[in-house]
């Protein structure tokens, strides 16, 4: 039965499609294949999440080699949720991509662009679904190398510098992760994550295990752009093609947060990570700096893509904040914000892609008067901005509410204040865009422009509409996030 092979199909189909699209040497055909594969991956993710919620964990042995001797793909509630996030964003962004890529990428490079996109999707899905620690590194490199190529294809020459900076910092992060995995293997003799979690208890107090945790923490921190290891992110998001900015902002850092969760709670365990090691206060400190500093820097950005990039650094701070609380409400907030931030930031970057398509730039000066010239696009940006702030009836409010609940349960009132201050800072930088779009006249000599094509507007509004839908109908997202949090904390369901 084909359903039994969904875990491997999730990775193999986009992996095989990546070189396949190059054979046609036609951008339209390459887009169509990428579009079809992305939606196929989403269908598999939905099916896997349904299976996990109904029947529990899925274990898939590659080549019928029983784990831990063979490579295992293991799907549980947390990574089934992340698979859904990655594949859903990929499917919507692939729908958006056709017109955007035709505008921004030279015709002779479009086939290679879509091939790199499929490889990046393969890597992100592989990181999420694999139950083998070394395979996490392998898929991490697949997604990273393809990301460097995607970013470098931006129209601005500074995209090459941004890609190189990302390459240098990403390579350092991957090396740290590989060293950490190697040290764990030296102590446990296994690379299977489930087996590793059992065996590591006997050597948890060893200095080698502590060193492994430190290497992995720093390496993953670089990959997820945790402040102050975020220096690669602003330029990467700013100068990448619009479709790439939307895709990476909504998926790449979320998968890295998942890797952090997997190592902290599954491999090393809650006691080792947060009681034997002082990681909770470190994470709280770094998350607080991320929220306050990055939100403040975002206020002073004139390029709207750079503004959203710094906003992403702050939003990662909210996720880490929830993780560091080590309680059900806080961890639920962190996992929920993975989903909600993917919706809001994907939609916002796609709205900027629509603006770039018609106006040719995304500076604060260029969007002056855009509320009248491109009303549907700018209204989508406003709704996404409200979700980013955390206004009630939007998805952003739900995760921040659970974050406040987690802080109050712990008695961390200063943490609650930081969350509220971060939201107020978001009001400031979102308002700058609203003020320019709706209360300033259009630039001198500005020509009349139409709305972006429907092939771009509809996917944008699907994500923006999802921000409202999941802000009102919270049963699905909150339920899955809460069950995943309970599972990670090792509590009875």
Uncertain residue segments? none
How many H/I helices? 20
Structure classification: mainly alpha
- Radius of gyration from the CA trace? 21 Å
Spatial order of the strands in the main sheet? Answer: 1-2
Main sheet properties: 2 strands, antiparallel
* Gap between N and C termini: 30 Å
> What quaternary form is this?
single chain
Listing every helix as H and every strand as E from the N terminus to the C terminus, the arrangement reads HHEEHHHHHHHHHHHHHHHHHH
Overall strand count: 2
| Share of residues in strands | under 5%
Question: Can you give a write-up of this model?
Answer:
The chain has a domain at 279-493. The model has no long low-confidence stretch (mean pLDDT 87). The protein is mainly alpha-helical. The chain contains 20 helices and 2 strands. It is globular, with a radius of gyration of 21 Å. The protein has a two-stranded antiparallel ribbon. The protein has helices spanning 6-24, 27-55, 77-104, 110-129, 133-152, 158-188, 193-199, 207-223, 233-239, 242-267, 270-276, 279-299, 304-325, 328-359, 370-373, 375-389, 395-410, 413-439, 454-472, 475-489; strands spanning 58-61, 72-75.
């Amino acid at each position: 039965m084909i359903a039994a092979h969904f875990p491997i199909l999730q990775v193999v189909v986009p992996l095989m499609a990546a070189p396949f699209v190059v054979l046609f040497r036609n951008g339209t055909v390459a887009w169509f294949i990428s579009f079809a594969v992305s939606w196929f991956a989403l269908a598999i993710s939905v099916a896997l999440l349904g299976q996990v919620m109904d029947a529990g964990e899925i274990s898939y042995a590659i080549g019928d080699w029983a784990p831990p001797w063979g490579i295992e793909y293991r799907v549980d509630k947390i990574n089934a949720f992340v698979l859904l996030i990655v594949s859903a964003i990929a499917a919507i962004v692939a729908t958006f991509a056709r017109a955007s890529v035709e505008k921004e990428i030279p015709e002779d490079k479009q086939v290679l662009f879509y091939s790199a996109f499929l490889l990046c999707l393969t890597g992100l899905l592989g990181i999420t679904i694999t139950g083998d620690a070394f395979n996490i590194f392998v898929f991490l490199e697949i997604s990273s190398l393809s990301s460097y190529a995607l970013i470098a294809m931006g129209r601005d020459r500074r995209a090459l510098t941004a890609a190189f900076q990302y390459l240098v910092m990403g390579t350092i992060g991957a090396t740290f992760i590989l060293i950490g995995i190697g040290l764990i293997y030296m102590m446990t003799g296994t690379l299977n994550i489930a087996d590793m979690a059992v065996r590591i208890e006997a050597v948890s107090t060893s200095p080698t295990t502590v060193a492994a945790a430190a290497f992995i923490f720093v390496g993953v921190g670089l990959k997820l752009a945790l402040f102050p290891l975020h220096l690669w992110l602003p330029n990467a998001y700013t100068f990448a093609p619009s479709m790439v900015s939307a895709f990476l902002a909504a998926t790449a850092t979320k998968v890295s947060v998942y890797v952090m969760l997997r190592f902290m709670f599954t491999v090393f365990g809650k006691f080792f990570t947060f009681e034997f090691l002082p990681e909770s206060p470190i994470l709280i400190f770094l998350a607080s700096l991320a929220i306050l500093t990055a939100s403040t820097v975002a206020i002073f950005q004139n390029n709207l893509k750079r503004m959203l990039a710094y906003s992403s650094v702050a939003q990662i701070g909210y996720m880490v904040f929830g993780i560091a609380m080590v309680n059900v409400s806080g961890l639920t907030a962190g996992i929920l914000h993975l989903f909600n931030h993917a919706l809001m930031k994907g939609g916002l970057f796609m709205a900027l892609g629509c603006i770039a398509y018609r106006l040719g730039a995304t500076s604060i000066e260029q969007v002056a008067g855009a509320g009248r010239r491109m009303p549907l696009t700018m209204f989508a940006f406003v709704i996404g901005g409200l979700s980013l702030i955390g206004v009630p009836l939007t998805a952003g409010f739900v995760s921040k509410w659970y974050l406040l609940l987690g802080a109050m349960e712990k008695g961390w009132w200063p943490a609650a204040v930081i969350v509220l201050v971060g939201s107020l800072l978001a009001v400031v930088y979102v308002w700058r865009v609203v003020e320019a779009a709706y209360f300033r006249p259009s630039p001198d000599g500005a020509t009349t422009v139409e709305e972006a094509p429907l092939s771009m507007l509809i996917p944008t509004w699907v994500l923006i509409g999802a921000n409202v839908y999941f802000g009102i109908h919270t049963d699905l997202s909150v339920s899955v996030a809460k069950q995943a949090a309970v599972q990670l904390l090792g509590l009875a369901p």
